[in-house]
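User: Fold this; tokens only.

Assistant: Input:
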Amino acid sequence: PPPPPHCLEAPAHAMVVHAYNAVSEGVTTAEEVDAAFAQLLASPGWRELETKTSRRMCDQYTFEGDSGRPPPPHLRFLHTLVGRLLDRLQSDCGDDEVIPMQCFLCLYEDGDDSCPAHAHDCRQLTLSFGAERSLMVVDRPYRMQHGDVVVLDGERHSVPAQRGAPCEPRVSLNLFFATALDLATRPVSVNGRAGSGYRPAGGAAAKGRGRGRQG
């Protein structure tokens, strides 16, 4: 089998999308994913985020560099799941310490909700709950189903609207993180900044790894 995408071995300019299913990979169970989704839908913390071209509901909390820092009380039910995701990231990154920065949650209530194309000057793990939706990474669509995970490293991405047919709610749990090597060699920030140099121009097109479904 191919080796895991160890962070220490990944050149900063290579666009690699690491995709898998959290249940199939043993990170969590189907029951835990179902329960977390139900609690997320009922969470009182959602706030509307609207731009000129998109709308979705959001919630967030920060780690302040401490992977063991618990979420706020209304999201405390996510603590164990987030810890397991961070453990998986650390396993994939080998000896390069994973440093979490922020957990950002998005609720897409129906097919009209969307997220515009953007990028971050850091790494990102996205876990999808609920309805199947397309995640565009650079110019390739990844069909994200319940329990699917993608790990990005500065790639431009978006969630297009899905109109024309009924669409049930979807939640994405996004963990923004860096590694010790990133912090020593790249300008890291949750926000993408034009000309920051986090990702050199002219990188290769994104390619799928693992179980990511494209279509």
